[in-house]
Design brief:
Elements lengths: L2 E5 L2 E4 L5 E7 L4 E7 L5 H14 L4 E8 L5 H4 L2 H8 L2 E5 L4 H4 L3 H7 L21 E3 L4 E3 L5 E6 L8 E6 L4 E6 L5 H6 L8 H13 L4 E4 L8 H22 L7 H11 L6 H20 L3 E6 L2 E6 L3
Parallel strand pairs: 4-5, 5-6, 6-7, 11-12
Antiparallel strand pairs: 1-2, 2-3, 3-4, 8-9, 9-10, 10-11, 13-14
């Protein structure tokens, strides 16, 4: 991990979850900092806090707020540690605040009930924090040194996720969080977790429309080739849709059958976490394809079967 300067007063720390930093420069020696996400757990928080304090060691800095893009534990798990160290505020959207206040909601939602103990790890269950400010998507603010911050509505990966668009005199930098996945990341994890497939597609279009100079995904490498990365993400989504339709081409299938078909086709050996996350994502695809009129379902012999509709 290291603090990397992207543009004047805009930085990020590369890691399993990329962290953004916006500097509100008050003088040559004094600055306020706004973090974008905090990492997965206390250990992440310690490393990130050390990197920040060392990088800005010649300045009197105050971490004013952690802006959580959404409430998945790998993005907010170090909130508590950093807040205790700095007394900073926690900002998040209204529909994402529930998992900060009740961290067990994340694994419950993904599992669909009381989760197995193997899933109750720090990667899925963050320490509880209470937000100080509720972000309105599409809200804007201007810092004292002129940096403009826009909260961009990017749902789909989760309920009311936001990206953070930062503008100074030189560049527009988008911290897109999990509204988009880096090229290597999407190539390796072809089936990223999604809550709403249609909304995720719309969010990719939103990212394209912003004309940012630089995009930093929540996971994966930053890029200036935003359109290419958007297209790669769209290809992954379409590929997964087609894989499910292919599974239903000749016979009706249960959701479990479809999960196995998709995992086999993508050469994934499911462990418990992948079973939960990909299984939950498959359900999101089934709802999307159902709403599009491409598939339907019925209950037979106490099982739910999906089948392809005539088109």
């Amino acid at each position: 991990m290291a603090v990397i300067n992207i543009s004047d007063c805009i930085y990020y720390i590369s890691g399993p979850t990329n962290i953004g930093i916006i500097e509100e420069r008050l003088s040559d020696t004094k600055s306020n900092l706004y973090m974008i996400d905090s990492g997965c757990n206390t250990e992440d928080g310690k490393r990130i806090f050390t990197e920040i304090t060392e990088y800005f060691s010649k300045k009197d800095i105050t971490i004013k707020a952690i802006i959580n893009t959404h409430s998945h534990a790998d993005h907010c798990g170090a909130n508590n540690y950093i807040q205790q160290k700095t007394n900073c505020e926690i900002w998040i959207t209204e529909n994402e605040q529930g998992s900060l206040i009740n961290p067990f909601l994340q694994p419950i939602i993904s599992w669909g009930g009381n989760p197995l103990p193997e899933i109750n790890s720090s990667y899925y269950v963050a320490e509880k924090t209470v937000p100080n400010k509720i972000i309105n998507p599409n809200e804007k603010l201007t810092l004292l040194n002129g940096i403009k911050i826009s909260f961009i509505n990017l749902p789909g990966h989760y309920f009311e996720m936001v990206g953070i668009l930062c503008e100074n005199d030189n560049k527009k930098v988008l911290f897109a969080s999990d509204g988009i996945f880096g090229r290597k990341n999407i190539g390796k994890y072809w089936i990223p977790f999604l809550y709403d497939v249609k909304e995720f597609k719309n969010s990719l279009d939103t990212i394209s429309s912003l004309n940012a100079d630089f995009c930093i995904p929540g996971h994966g490498e930053p890029t200036s080739q935003i359109e290419e990365t958007v297209e790669l993400n769209k290809i992954a989504i379409i590929s997964n849709e087609q894989c499910i339709l292919e599974a239903l081409k000749y016979k009706e299938q249960t959701q479990e059958d479809i999960l196995k078909y998709v995992a086999d086709k993508n050469e994934i050996n499911l462990h418990i976490a992948q079973y939960m996350l990909i299984g939950c994502t498959i359900k999101a695809y089934l709802t999307f394809l159902y709403n599009e009129g491409k598939i339907s379902y019925h209950i037979k012999e106490n099982k739910m079967y999906w089948f392809k509709t005539e088109s």
